[in-house]
From TrEMBL:
Keyword terms, alphabetized: Membrane, Mitochondrion, Mitochondrion inner membrane, Transit peptide
InterPro entries: Cyt_c_oxidase_su6a, Cyt_c_oxidase_su6a_sf
Family: Belongs to the cytochrome c oxidase subunit 6A family.
Locations listed in the record: Mitochondrion inner membrane
GO molecular-function terms, A-Z: enzyme regulator activity
An example Gene Ontology CC term for this record: mitochondrial inner membrane
Transit peptide as UniProt keyword: yes
Protein name: Cytochrome c oxidase polypeptide VIa
Organism: Smittium megazygosporum
Any one biological process term the GO annotation gives: mitochondrial electron transport, cytochrome c to oxygen
Xref: Gene3D superfamilies: Cytochrome c oxidase, subunit VIa
Annotated PANTHER family: CYTOCHROME C OXIDASE POLYPEPTIDE VIA, CYTOCHROME C OXIDASE SUBUNIT
Length: 117
């Protein structure tokens, strides 16, 4: 008897014992009805949590984040960032394959000052 046949025999024994409902009463239709009722109440609870807690919190946080971002943009207009020429900035072995080849993919002239601006 090799390892494969031994493991198959072991899995067959485990499967047959795990499929048995030892020490339990047979399940009747009232058990399934109780499960359905419990699932229905749980579903209603989570629907209420979603509608009355999650959605309003998302709206409140969205308004908060919007106001913070507007304040941030106003601050940038008053105090624009200045370019500090560190020696490790702008080192490229070859140009990028987009645009003029000198700016990264997410380059923004308003927030990423360059030597030329």
């Amino acid at each position: 008897m090799n390892f494969v046949s031994t493991s198959r025999l072991g899995s067959r024994i485990a499967r047959s014992t795990l499929q048995k409902r030892a020490f339990s009463a047979p399940v009747g239709p009232e058990a399934y009805t109780a499960i359905r009722e419990e699932a229905k109440t749980a579903s209603e609870t989570w629907k209420k949590v979603t509608l009355f807690i999650t959605v309003p919190l998302c709206l409140v946080y969205g308004a908060y984040a919007y106001n913070r971002e507007i304040h941030h943009l106003e601050h940038y207009e008053e105090h624009p960032p200045e370019y500090i020429p560190y020696p490790y900035l702008g080192i490229h072995k070859k140009n990028f394959p987009w645009g003029d080849g000198t700016k990264t993919l997410f380059y923004n002239e308003k927030f990423n000052p360059s030597e030329k601006s």
